[in-house]
Design goal:
Shape: extended
Number of helices: 7
Low-confidence stretches: none
Strand content: under 5%
Order of helices and strands: HHHHHHH
Largest sheet: none
Structural class: mainly alpha
Mean pLDDT: 86
Number of domains: 1
């Protein structure tokens, strides 16, 4: 009923929006550097996760017994993979590219294997879905053969996200003038 504060122009959102849009442009102009940065971030996360898992091993072993050894092994693998990526970022870039190719291939095969439920919606939908799933499998296999294409795709998707998020931040900045 009684509005005592006025939000006003949101400079924080405005600066965030501009920074995201600049980030998107930089990412698209320098996809190699973007992938190296992603590889570095993944390395740090893997090492941190591995250390946290190793640090919790003794308590986990007390609580679960022999099953905790799996976590110990996972923690060691996390640290080793993180160290490999950290000291050889190019390997990390290639690994991330293959990761996306594997992910897309598995999802495409799963969709293809589950397409039969669309017969009830009509043969056109069923056939379209089958065709797109086969196309997706083909593209996934291309990504295996061309990991650089996969890396560029990752950068493009991230840049698109930054653009959308940046524009939304700018909209919020201007819209809050009326609050």
């Amino acid at each position: 009923m009684f509005k005592t504060t006025h939000f006003g122009f949101d400079w924080g959102e405005f600066i965030t929006g501009v920074a995201l849009l600049i980030g998107a442009v930089v990412m698209l102009r320098n996809p190699g550097a973007t992938m190296l940065t992603l590889s570095f971030i993944f390395a740090i996360i893997a090492i941190t996760r591995g250390i946290a898992t190793l640090a919790a091993f003794s308590k986990l072993h007390e609580m679960t017994g022999g099953r905790a050894w799996i976590s110990l092994l996972a923690g060691i693998v996390d640290v080793l993979v993180g160290a490999l990526f950290l000291f050889n970022l190019e390997t990390g870039v290639i690994a991330l590219s293959y990761f996306f190719a594997i992910w897309f291939l598995i999802d495409s095969i799963a969709n293809l294997l589950n397409a039969s439920h669309l017969r009830e919606a009509g043969m056109v939908w069923f056939i379209l879905n089958i065709l797109f799933d086969i196309l997706s499998i083909f593209i996934s296999l291309l990504l295996f053969m061309q990991p650089v294409l996969s890396a560029v795709g990752i950068v493009t998707i991230l840049a698109m996200f930054f653009v959308v998020w940046g524009i939304n931040a700018l909209v919020l900045a201007f819209a809050r003038r009326y609050l």
